[in-house]
């Protein structure tokens, strides 16, 4: 009798003295997550420098020409594999030419240079990223829970809601939450968002380059879970036009000095620096962001910079707790849901600490 597929997927590989490593990287569009698996000898691996480099066909990802297509993957971060379990691992990689130069789309390499700068490193920059996304029906690419070809009732009842008529896709959200915890990610929470079919998870309090690594792996896990469920996850910043909220990746930031007494004044100075470079940040904060940053639906207008305490209609928000305690963090509300966290986190650090 042939074993059911589920039995084969759950086979225990411990007796083989081998593990499966899933190498993950970012493709040429900047949002297409790619991965492939390889067999490695031995038991648990926690140090990415102990893993072999690998290659892929860059001409098939828009990252190399066909007559010189080899791109090299450098392992950078390791996480437990929630799909294969055991000692199997997920490996976040970045991409280089055979000569060892970072390829043009390798934003991680650029970010590491900023985070390794002594003036940045000494400040221990913390990031927390609120990743919003929308679940779509596979065949029609329309939000989960919405009438086919139609619209649900107006926004209001859906934010953090419960009930079959208000929350659509919770099993996917919970599966993703637990899978991220299993993998070792610093996932801080999850909730339903203002637009029905839209959800959010948070990667909380990660230092420097780790925030980008963790968000990309969390996105990968979400893509895999929705693949299993036959649902599409969209990171489009405005998946449905009209009177509906868009999707963002609000980025919370603090430095060691901001977290100490008197830090609020440093936060204000950092916000002033962000205002000076508003246009440069907007250009790097995600494709299609102009459809979201309209001054409506809890956003500031893309063409102007503003900040305020507890103001979700501002470019940058300072929390009430930070104001009251005179120290803490601020939230950059401009990044869109499809932003590259390597680019956004390093740019915030560069502008506020080096700029």
Automatic annotation (TrEMBL):
This is Glutamine synthetase. It catalyses: L-glutamate + NH4(+) + ATP = L-glutamine + ADP + phosphate + H(+). Residues 19-100 form the GS beta-grasp domain. GO terms for molecular function: ATP binding; glutamine synthetase activity. Keywords: ATP-binding, Ligase, Nucleotide-binding. Belongs to the glutamine synthetase family. Homooctamer. It comes from Arabis alpina. Pfam families: Gln-synt_C, Gln-synt_N. The keyword Nucleotide-binding applies.
């Amino acid at each position: 009798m042939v074993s059911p597929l589920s039995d084969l997927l759950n086979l225990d590989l411990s007796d083989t003295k081998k593990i499966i490593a899933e190498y993950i990287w970012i493709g040429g569009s900047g949002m297409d997550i790619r991965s492939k698996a390889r067999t490695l000898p031995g038991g648990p691996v926690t140090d990415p420098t102990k893993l072999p480099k690998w290659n892929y066909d860059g001409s098939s990802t828009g990252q190399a020409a066909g007559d010189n297509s080899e791109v090299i993957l450098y392992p950078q971060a390791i996480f437990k594999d929630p799909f294969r379990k055991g000692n199997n691992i997920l490996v976040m990689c970045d991409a280089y030419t055979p000569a060892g130069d970072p390829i043009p789309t390798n934003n991680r390499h650029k970010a590491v240079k900023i985070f390794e700068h002594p003036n940045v490193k000494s400040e221990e920059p913390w990031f927390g990223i609120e990743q919003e996304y929308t679940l779509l029906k596979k065949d029609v690419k329309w939000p989960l829970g919405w009438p086919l070809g139609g619209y649900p009732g107006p926004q209001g009842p859906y934010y953090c809601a419960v009930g079959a008529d208000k929350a659509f896709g919770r099993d996917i959200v919970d599966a993703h939450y637990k899978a991220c915890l299993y993998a070792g990610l610093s996932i801080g929470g999850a909730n339903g968002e203002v637009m029905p079919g839209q959800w959010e998870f948070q990667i909380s309090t990660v230092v420097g380059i780790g925030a980008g690594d963790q968000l990309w792996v969390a996105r990968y896990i979400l893509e895999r879970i929705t693949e299993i469920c036959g649902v599409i996850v969209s990171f489009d910043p405005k998946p449905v036009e009209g009177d509906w909220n868009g999707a963002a990746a609000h980025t919370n930031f603090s430095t060691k000095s901001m977290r100490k007494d008197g830090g609020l004044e440093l936060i204000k100075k950092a916000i002033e620096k962000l205002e000076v470079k508003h246009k440069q940040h907007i250009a790097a904060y995600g494709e299609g962001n102009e459809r979201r940053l309209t001054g409506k639906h809890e956003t500031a207008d893309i063409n102007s910079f503003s900040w305020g305490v507890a103001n979700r209609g501002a470019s940058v928000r300072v929390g009430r707790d930070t104001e009251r305690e005179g120290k803490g963090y601020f939230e950059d509300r401009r990044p869109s849901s499809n932003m590259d966290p390597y680019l956004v986190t390093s740019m915030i650090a560069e502008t506020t600490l080096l700029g």
